[in-house]
Structures are given as C-alpha cells and as structure tokens.
Write a structure and sequence with these properties.
The complex is a heterodimer of chains A (about 325) and B (about 450). With about 325 residues, chain A is α/β, with parallel strands linked by helices. Chain A has one domain: Dihydropteroate synthase-like (TIM Barrel, Alpha-Beta Barrel). Chain A has ten helices and ten strands. Chain A has an eight-stranded parallel β-sheet, covered by helices on one side. In chain A, strands 1-2 form a two-stranded antiparallel sheet. Chain A is globular and about 65 Å long. The relative contact order of chain A is 0.15. Chain B is globular. Classes of the chains: A alpha/beta (about 325), B alpha/beta (about 450). At the A-B interface, helix 7, helix 8, helix 9 and helix 10 of A face helix 8, helix 9, helix 10, helix 11 and helix 12 of B. The site of iron/sulfur cluster has 13 residues of chain B, from helix 2. Iron/sulfur cluster binds next to helix 2 of chain B.
C-alpha cells in the first residue's frame, strides 16, 4: 500500500549563488547554491544544495555590539579582518556577515575606508561574504558602490534594501553582479511588493534574498515564524515574486530581557540557547541563511542541520 | 469529505432518547458535524453507521488527556498544517524523564522541580508538564517503587515507559487511576498492552518507524477497544522526525488516513541532539515531548518557543486598557503611558516594580500593538491618549498633570501636550532604564 501524501505544491524556490571560487572568477574557498526547494524545508534532499547556511555576524566598529560577544571574542573584535578569519578557522561558520557599523556614526564621510575594510576582510577570510552597508540614505549610494566595487567578482550578498530605500543598493548589485537582501517588516505582502519594486528596476529574481525580519524568541518570533512559512507556502503554490530564499537574523536576541538580565555565569548559555532555538526554528519555517552573533551557537546549529539533511530513512523504515 | 449535519442525522437512530447528552438526535448530529462530540456517546448506533461516522465526524486528530487534576492536560484536536491558517490549540506537554535506577532523592528532586518551577512570561506561568519514568532496571518492583516515589511527591501527569507488561502492571497499581500515559506498544506486544490500557482506562503510545504499519497497529488497538492512542515515530534523525510527523499531520487533517489521526509522541531524550529535537517537536506537531531534565538556559528557551508557536499570530495577547497601579501610588505619583500589548505591559511593569517607585500605568488601547508597531501603524495618537485620560479618570487620581510617554513615541509629544493640556515627559526608549529615569527626572 503506502500513503499518498499530497500537499498540492507546484513551485520551486529560485536558486541564488553566493560567493565565487577561483574557477568562478572570485577568490573564495567555497561558493554556495541555495534555493531549489520544492517542499517545506527538510522534507526533501536537494542535490548540491548547501542550505541552510550559517553566517557569523561581525562589525567594523564594535562600539554598539553586544557586550556578551565582545567579552567572548576578546581582542578579535578590534580587527574585523582577524574576526572574519576566526569565523572560518576557529568558529566554523559558513559565511561572514560584515556590518559596516563605522558608517553609522554621525556625519560619517570617510568613504574610502569602506573599500579598505572590505578588502581587508576579503583577504583574511575565504568564506563568502554578506555586507551590511550604511543605513543613512545620504551616503548609501557611495557606500554601496564602494562595497560592490571592492567585492567585484566575489558574488557578495549586499544588505539591506527596504521599500523606502532600495535603489542605491540595487544599482551597486547590478553593476558588480552581487545579490541583495530585501527586508520588509514581517508581512508576506510587503515582502512581495519590495521584490516587485526590485524587479522593476532590473534586478533579477535570482539575485534577491528575502529578509522578512526576524523578531527574536519571545519578542516577535511568533509572527516571524509564520511570515516565513507564508512566504515559503506562497512560493510553493507558484508565486514567483515570493520564490526567493530567505535569510533570518534575529538581531535583538542578545538584548532581550531573558539574556540581558541573566546571571553572569549563565549568560553565555542563555544567549546561545536563545540564538540556537530561534535559528533552528527559522530554518524549519523556511530560512536558508541563519545569522548568529555568538560563536558558540554555530556548532550547535551545524550539527542540527546535518541531522536534518541526513536523508537516511526519513520517510519511514521497514 | 466531511459529512453535513443532515447526512449524519439520517444515519442516527432518531429515537431522541437524550442518552448522548443532547436533547435530540438532530442536535447531536449538528455537534458531530462540527467535531464537537463523539459518536460513541450514542449507544443505539448500528455498526455500519458507526463505521461511517467514526471516521468522518471525530476531530481529525483525536484529543487525548493525560493525568487528572490541576496539572492534567489534553493534546490533539488540531486542524491545520500551518498555524497561520487558524492556530495551534493544544501546546505539547514537555515531560522530564527519570530512570527507576536513580536514587529516591534524585527522583524526588526532579519531581519537585517539575512541580514548583515556573517561569513567568507575558502574564503566563510557563511550566514543564510532568514526569516520564523509565523502567531502566528491568525489574517490576524497582519500577513500581520509582512510580510510587513520584506519586507521593507530586500530583503530576506521568508517562510509564517499559517494555514489560508485568512492570507496567505493578506500576499501575500505584497510579492507574490517574490516567498515566503508557509507553509503548509494538506490533509484537500490543494485545497485552491494550489489556492493561483498557483495564486502567489509560492512554497508550504505539511505536514504530513506518507509518503504514503504525496505522495498522492503531487500527488493531482500536479493535481491542483502546481509542486514546499516541504515535511514537521512532525517528532515526531530526529529518526522519520532521518528514514523518509532517506526513502524519497532513494525512490526518485531510482525513486521507483516519487511522493516523492521533497526537504524536516524541522522546527527545533518546535523540542525539535533545534540544534540537525539542524545538522541532514544538514547531512540527509533537504533542508530548520527553526530555532529560533541562539546564536553565535550555528550559527557558524551550518554554518560550512553545509559548510563541502556540500563540495565535492573528491576535496579539492583549491587556484591558485602563489605569493600573504599581505599589500604592499617591496623588503625586508619576503616570506612565503605554500600549495594551501584553508583552509591552509586562516588560514595563517588571522594570517599574524593580525601580520601587510607586506609580500609575496608563494603558491605552492600541489593539494589542507594541509601542513601535503602534506608532508605525498610526494606532497611537494624541486623541487616543486624551480619551484614555478621561475614560479612566486619571485627573481624579493624581494632583499633577505630567505624563511620561515611551521614548519611541517621542514624535507625538507635542501633539499630546496640545490635545490633553498635560505636560509630557519623554521617557527612555528602553524600559530597562526607567528606574534611573524616574529617580533622576521625576520631581514634577
Ligand atoms: C512583532 C512585530 C510586529 C507584529 C505585531 C506585534 C505587536 N503586537 O505589536 C506584526 C507582525 C503584526 C507587526 C506589524 C507591523 N509592524 Co512590526 N514589528 C514587530 C517587532 C519585531 C517586535 C515588536 C515587539 O514585540 N516589541 C517588544 C515590545 C515590548 O516593545 P515596545 O512595545 O516598543 O516596548 C519597549 C519600549 O517601547 C519600552 N516602553 C514601552 N512602554 C513604555 C512606556 C514608557 C513610559 C517608557 C519610558 C518606555 C516604554 O519598553 C519596552 C521594552 O524596552 C518590531 C521590531 C522591534 N524590535 O521592535 C517590528 C516593528 C516595530 N514593526 C514595524 C512596522 C513598520 C510594522 C508595520 C507598520 C508593517 C506594515 N506596514 O504592515 C505593521 C503595523 C501593524 C499593523 N498595520 O497592523 C517596524 C517599525 C519601523 C519604525 N521604526 O517605525 C519595526 C521596528 C520593524 C522594522 N525594523 O521594520 N509588527
Ligand atoms: S443517544 Fe442516539 S438515539 Fe438517543 S438522542 Fe442521542 S443520538 Fe439520538
């Protein structure tokens, strides 16, 4: 006999390429393919897929970074090149997500430094890179162009486009063949609208990664989880404007009350469990890139993802 | 596939004898159509009608109750694959596992922890759900003793885990009337297990890693008159769990395989990655999850995830708008305005309590939106604040006219001053800083 499980899905998630090896015109040790899913996550095994990927978030000016991470990583945080190198060789992450927090200071104008920072990070790590540029419309254009240029050939993922500011970043991505993170606040329709805007100015679908905004566990995750499921579901039902891979970054995790007021001896553990639980659940809901800030979260997620792709006997043994 | 009330009515005896608890056969039929009652309550149904109705009118996933008394809980009776389609109704019980080879002290310690530990979030007390006792010793006496120890320590829902009917039988003499869950019947031993479950009126877990065979086993158990079943899918990996659990949910809610319409049981403690298994169990349809006692960090994360996944995403948990007191505020105490999203209320209230400044919280109706969300959505306005001050008679409660508003609502400060005639003090963005702020700034 055998039961016939029918979900009525027909769509496929668009494939997005991240990073470029020497053979592909870049300098990365790996390149990744994400997307191509035809079911809810982990119900199938997609050949050649690297998802879900784990990205360690770092920054070039740690002034506003979580004290928990600063304490754990020590001196590394003062040199984002070394920090990025450790992401790869010590912490075992799949990607690095560099936040150019230096550009977020008031009256920032040293655009040249942006290029140097990106060069430095690219030379120190072999991992594919995600770069978060400025969040000030006035300097967006210059900052993103500089990032795009510095990372030419490396197939970067650039962030973050929003409905109110997406032109500069899209222009930089198109000029240098990078992909773009499109962020909207926890709503499937807003996610779709932004993708359409990006498409209209010429960015192709296989260069977009959706960020539906991840509220952290206990502080909005209940909404984010369903927003991701809905996006994935719409894609499987055939809506091409939502059929892009999803990135999840619960940036508030290390500042939520449970983590912040934890007794010092437990604080790292709670931070890690909070990131791990959020990241794993986001992957189950549809995210294919999971961003974390605490290095100890990485091996936990990695192991879980391995077991989620084990394939063996998934459908039922004898 | 679901039958309409009138079709069901045609299959009923039409005696209107009320024995089912409904005044007429028709009302019984209407309830059946809505999945709100059980066909078995009508004693006069013929077998043919029972077979048709049984499969189509009961909820697609049977409700199963564990334990009795205050901490008892029910699982199952779910209707959707995605929580956004409706919601998930019955949060999984998460039970701490002990082995009968542990010392009495250890067993008591875990039991006491599950009894007393509670973690308060958003106005709810989050707790673990009960104790699973494993017959690791292989001895019936040792098992019975461990069960007795747990029983004497606390009234909690239990899972009895043993391969040995004799051990289960010995344990059931202590707790058989409290609806413990029996784990687990297999193809080989189900007859003996069904006899025990039926005799004590207990729910029963059936176990196997092949869903076709599980469906057959479930059918076999129901012919032995055990209906309260749960399914242990014996997953070899996290992927095996998610694939089988999703298939079972889909097959049962669509009623393609009514024999699989039972809640899923997951023993995370035997999985290689216990914490990962718990998280997956919560989001992917497990109804009872067994785990070794968790560290503080994992415990809080798991309970918070369960609360999140089982909150209806369509309607945020809300407070009634009104004027709330922290401590016993006098006429000169500060008034702090905020929104009626529960999470916001309890976060702010927590920090206010630890600041030890008696004060009033003016909760305005933003339809459950947080401060930042309400501001972005235009749900927080000066008119709303003005009406709330009036409606909750704030001017009678305090002698001053100064309102502290959340830092994130600062763009509204001028308009609130104009509309209300109150002086507005913009507070910090982060409620954690409210204590400092009040100590420094509150002098009116
Ligand atoms: C979950 C969430 C939602 C949920 C709703 C949750 C809810 N019940 O409010 C949903 C998915 C429905 C949602 C919808 C929207 N959202 Co929203 N959402 C969030 C998210 C992730 C978390 C909100 C939350 O729970 N915060 C936790 C609570 C406790 O925070 P809070 O109420 O602000 O309280 C804090 C402080 O304000 C302070 N405080 C509170 N009261 C008081 C009182 C005093 C006196 C003081 C001193 C301090 C104080 O203490 C608290 C802790 O520090 C935030 C991101 C974020 N980090 O805030 C985005 C966010 C608020 N949303 C945003 C937006 C834009 C929207 C939408 C407008 C999008 C849209 N167009 O549909 C809609 C609007 C709603 C609508 N139209 O119905 C934006 C707002 C952008 C901005 N800066 O203006 C945010 C910041 C996300 C983003 N970065 O894009 N959202
Ligand atoms: S018990 Fe059966 S026959 Fe009697 S009223 Fe109910 S449905 Fe009708």
């Amino acid at each position: 006999m055998g039961f016939d499980v029918q979900f009525g899905w027909s769509g496929t998630i668009t494939e997005v390429l991240l990073g470029a090896t020497k053979a592909e015109g870049g300098t990365r040790s790996h390149s990744y393919r994400i997307g191509n899913g035809k079911t809810l996550p982990f119900l199938e095994n997609i050949p050649d897929s690297s998802a879900p990927l784990i990205a360690l978030e770092i920054c070039d000016n740690p002034k506003y970074w979580s004290p928990i991470v600063l304490a754990y990583c020590g001196d590394l945080v003062n040199d984002c090149g070394e920090w990025a190198k450790a992401a790869d060789s010590v912490y075992g992450s799949d990607m690095v997500r560099l936040y150019l927090t230096s550009t977020r200071q008031r009256d920032f104008s040293d655009i040249a430094s942006v290029g140097k920072t990106v060069d430095n990070v690219l030379s120190k790590t072999h991992l594919p890179l995600i770069i978060e540029g400025s969040n000030e419309p006035k300097i967006d254009s210059e900052v993103f162009l500089k990032c795009g240029e510095a990372g030419q050939g490396e197939r970067l993922l650039l962030g973050t486009a929003e409905a109110s500011r997406y032109r500069s970043i899209a222009a930089a991505a198109m000029a240098y063949n990078h992909s773009v993170i499109a962020q909207s606040p926890i709503d499937v329709n807003l996610a779709k609208q932004l993708n359409i805007l990006l498409k209209e100015i010429g960015l192709s679908r296989d260069h977009i990664v959706i960020d539906p905004y991840t509220g952290s566990l206990g502080y909005g995750f209940e909404y984010s989880y369903s927003a991701m499921e809905r996006i994935r579901f719409a894609a499987l039902k055939g809506d091409a404007d939502l059929a892009m891979p999803i990135i999840s970054s619960a940036i508030d995790t290390l500042t939520v009350k449970e983590v912040r007021v934890a007794e010092p001896a437990l604080q790292d553990d709670i931070a890690v469990q909070w990131e791990f639980t959020t990241g794993l659940s986001a992957a189950v809901a549809g995210a294919e890139i999971i961003c974390v800030r605490h290095p100890r979260t990485i091996p936990l997620l990695k192991k879980a993802f391995l077991s989620l792709k084990s394939g063996k006997n998934a459908a039922g043994g004898q | 596939m679901a039958l309409k009330a009138l079709d069901i009515y045609k299959l009923l005896p039409r005696k209107n004898c009320k024995e089912c608890g409904d005044p007429t056969c028709l009302t019984f039929a209407m309830k059946l159509a809505g999945g709100k009652t059980d066909v078995d309550l009508c004693p006069y149904l013929d077998e043919g009608a029972r077979a048709i109705l049984g499969a189509t009118t009961r909820p697609p996933i049977r409700i199963v109750k564990l334990g009795i008394g205050e901490r008892s809980f029910a699982v199952g009776e779910e209707f959707v694959l995605y929580r956004h389609e409706k919601t998930f109704y019955h949060p999984p019980g998460i039970m701490f596992k002990i082995a009968d080879t542990q010392t009495v002290d250890e067993i008591q310690a875990v039991t006491t922890r599950v009894l007393n530990e509670s973690f308060s979030r958003v106005g709810a007390d989050l707790r673990f759900s009960g104790i699973a006792i494993e017959n690791a010793s292989g001895s019936a006496d040792t098992f019975a003793l461990a069960v007795e120890t747990v029983e004497k320590t606390a009234d909690l829902p239990l899972v009895l885990m043993s391969k040995d009917p004799a051990a289960l039988s010995a344990a059931l003499t202590h707790c058989g009337t409290y609806r413990p869950l029996i784990h687990a019947a297999t193809q080989e031993n189900y007859e003996e297990f069904c006899t025990l479950a039926k005799h004590h009126g207990c729910p029963l877990v059936i176990k196997g890693n092949n869903i076709e065979k599980l469906a057959q086993l479930a059918k076999d158990c129901t012919t032995k008159e055990v209906q309260d079943l749960m399914l242990d899918l014996s997953p070899e990996s996290l992927q095996a769990f998610i694939v089988r659990s999703t298939a079972i949910r889909q097959l049962s809610i669509t009623r393609v395989a009514p024999d699989l319409g039972y809640p899923v049981f997951l023993d995370a403690s035997v999985m290689e990655q216990q914490e990962a298994a718990i998280a997956l169990g919560i989001s992917k349809y497990a109804s009872v999850i067994i785990t070794h006692p968790l560290s503080q960090a994992s415990a809080k994360a798991a309970l918070t995830l369960r609360q999140n996944i089982y909150t209806d995403p369509q309607k945020p948990i809300q407070m009634n708008p009104g004027l709330y007191r922290v401590g016993t505020p006098g006429k000169d105490a500060p008034v702090l305005m905020t929104v009626n999203f529960s999470l916001t209320f309890f976060t702010l209230q927590g920090y206010l309590e630890s600041s030890r400044v008696p004060c009033f919280m003016l909760i305005v109706d933003t339809e459950g939106l947080s401060v930042l969300t309400a501001v972005a959505a235009g749900k927080l306005s000066e008119m709303l604040v003005k009406e709330s001050i009036k409606k909750f008679s704030v001017e009678d409660e305090v002698s001053h006219r100064t309102l502290i508003i959340p830092g994130y609502s600062s763009p509204l400060s001028g308009r609130i001053e104009e509309a209300t005639g109150w002086k507005v003090l913009v507070g910090p963005r982060d409620a954690a800083e409210i204590g400092d702020f009040l100590n420094k700034e509150w002098k009116q």
